[in-house]
Amino acid sequence: MPIAIPSAAHTAPAVQTVLKPKPAAATPNSAPAPKASSPAATVNISNAAQTAIQESQETSAQTAKEAGHGDQQAVRLLAREAAAKKA
User: Fold this and answer.
1) Is residue 24 part of a domain?
2) I need a surface site. Which of 12, 37, 41, 81 has the fewest CB within 10 A?
3) What is the pLDDT along the chain (87 residues), one digit of tens a residue?
4) How many C-beta atoms surround the C-beta of residue 76 within 10 A?
5) Residue 38 to residue 5: CA distance in whole angstroms
6) Collapsing DSSP states into helix, strand and coil, what is residue 16?
7) How many Å separate Cα 84 from the centre of its chain?
């Protein structure tokens, strides 16, 4: 299930996601079952996890742009990628 991650600063509040189980597939000849309330799970994602997800989905062009603007994490990532490319 995709999780929406807003584009925000590193101080964004934790995102709360509600996951609902998928209904079982019904056969064409079966009668519709009465709808019962299904349990839901709530997941809180920390700021660090949100940042890690955003960084992992970032393109190399975006990383280079951020590194050019002084983002130290982007600079380290580009350095690691350059070292890996030489090896």
Assistant:
1) no
2) 37
3) 566 655 544 454 555 555 556 555 555 555 566 666 778 888 899 999 998 898 889 898 999 999 999 999 899 999 999 999 998
4) 11
5) 25
6) strand
7) 25
Q: Which residues in 6-76 belong to E strands, given as ranges?
A: 15-19, 41-45
Cβ contacts of residue 50 below 8 Å, gap of 6+? 5, 12, 14, 15
Note whether residue 27 is domain-resident.
Answer: no
Strand ranges (E), the chain: 15-19, 41-45
Tally the domains of the chain: 1
Amino acid at position 37, single letter = S
Does a structural domain hold residue 73? Answer: yes
Q: 31 lies in a domain?
A: no
Taking a C-beta distance cutoff of 8 angstroms, is the pair 50, 42 a contact? no
Quick check: 14 and 48 in contact, CB under 8 A? no
Q: Which DSSP helix (H) or strand (E) runs through 48?
A: helix 47-56
